[in-house]
Design a protein that fits this description.
heterodimer; A: 394 residues; alpha+beta; D-amino Acid Aminotransferase, Chain A, domain 1; Dna Ligase, domain 1; Rossmann fold; 3 domains; six-stranded antiparallel beta sheet; four-stranded antiparallel beta sheet; 13 helices; elongated; B: 291 residues; alpha/beta; 2 domains; seven-stranded mixed beta sheet; 9 helices
Chain lengths: 394, 291
Amino acid sequence: MRFSARGNVIKIHEYQAKELMSRYGIQIPEGDTASDPEQTALLISHLGPPTIVKAQIHAGGRGIGGGIKFANSPEEGRGIAEGLIGSHLITNQTGAQGAIVHKLLVEKTVAIKREMYLACVIDRSSQGPLLIVSPTGGMDIEKIAATQPEKILRVPIDLGAGFQPYQSRNICRFLNLDPKFIRAIFDLMTSVCGLFIENDCSLVEINPLVLDERDCLIALDAKIDFDDDALFRHMRLSNFRDASQQEELERQATEAGVAYVKLDGTVGCLVNGAGLAMATMDLAHGVGAEPANFLDVGGSATIEKIAAAVKIMLSDTNVTIILVNIFGGILRCDILAEGIVKAFRDIGSTLPLVVRMSGTNVEAGTRILFESKLDVSFASTLRELEGILSAKYA
Amino acid sequence: MSIFVNNKTRLLVQGITGREGGFHAEQCLTYGTNVVAGVTPGKGGHIVAGKIPVFESVHQAVNETGANVSLIFVPAPFAQDAMLEAVDAGIELIICIAEGVPILDSAKTLNFISKQGARLLGPNCPGIISPAERCKVGIMPGYIHLPGTVGVVSRSGTLSYEAVSQLTALDIGQSTCVGIGGDPLIGTDFVDVLKLFNQDPETELIVLIGEIGGNMEQDAARYIKEYVTKPVAAFIAGATAPTGKRMGHAGAIITGSDGTAAEKKSALETAGVVIIPSPGEIGITVKNMID
């Protein structure tokens, strides 16, 4: 049960992640950000080529998507910036619409001796932070876990004791690094754990972690995610927010305080409770109708909140039918019905609805929908709901 | 008999003077639960629902009333403090309803709880109910339940209400229904509950409701295969959920191949569990197993 509105989600860019890492003493490549071609060229002449120019978007897959390029001169950098800034970069993680590029990170290239992998996450089984280390850097760690599990070392961190020297010795041996790096690895891991714990992160990833020709350990690429539920105690992180990177409908949902995830199907799903919402999506899929979204309106929703949620669903142009499945407890069915009717009237939508409500004030809710003259089919159980939807998609 | 709670349970409600805490304390009381105390710092001496005394601290409440189970209604940012206070006061079973507890708070709390030998249910769970014992410790609607012999364990609140109503509509009662919670780190998992249901003479059949994310269902499958002698039916939500997107529950996110609904169903099926194909068929599947 949520006692307050859901709402805070912060994702950050690579340059911001590196800024945070740098504050914890983790070495990053020399560089800075640029917002236009002129600045880019200036930065490159200041850093001295060769440099690398990296588009800053909230999605991975930038390399293959054309968002990371080498610039051997300020002029070349200017050209790259002209092509990237203001464009929508499409990668395997952005979806077809891509993500807009406003900033570039320009860095001096690093002479790489070795590439490795390092991440810190929360581990469900050890119930605490877990470092993940691999001698194979620059690759998708999920793929390595699946194909070469022996190349991954998992190091659980005790929240009381912190990272220990023996763990550093083990990591060095596993990475096949000379014992002279034990101290550097200890410092790096201690920094990563400190950054992770002090900022309530859900992910700190350095991929690749490189050893350069001067034998320094450098975070060549960086990704940091935060635990949304802990943002209340890290108010300064809101300076990192970049609204231009969020899917518009998901942004509206965050504002309305409902949990919404856009999908590619045609059946808009309005449900209370995350498990029931997933089950309802599965039910639609089972009769050959693909869900257009995940949407959990939560327990104590008002008419305005329901209306906002329905409007978000209705503004997805793929949606051809709305499926409502509510198990009324704290959420009253009459409030739900009024919210639905309000949204349909405000927008002037004539889409059909299939509604299954049960629990608190179900009679009043049914009457409101019945008298609204909206195109509503009623079901009293999930099996009836399945039957109606199946008939419509037959 | 039942698991975790019964008619001897002496319930304490932390955050009892808040809107949700007050409402649900009264609902539990009406259902028949022995609600002996409430705690809200600064509100000691008040009386809730005409008979529940409010104390300044959990220690006081335990000393005065012998409370042994605590139901926590404080908002997520303060949940860690409330849980640790309950453990420190010697409460044996702590049930944390709040959704949105910072995950590192949960990690630190779980660490302390396991050292003290207490048990945590949740966070982000609806609680627990035993209809035959008239004991409801949570936010689930009491009226949908019926005394009987099916044990229900679920990661999702509303989906467990759905399962219970389908069972009750077919006149199939429940021994105990346990909501373990939708967070990635929780105090009591499927295996803990399966172990107790397996030993409980009142429970003859088990319904397990899982969802995408993590590998708790696979752990359950291994345990069932090895130890559980009673028939088990399972529904897994989230077959249509995309990878990498959080489906409401903080724990419902597919990160590795283990987290998918297909992997979980196949592990459970291998362990001899009956897989419920559609969320509308939970009741009918159990009925067919009984008949």
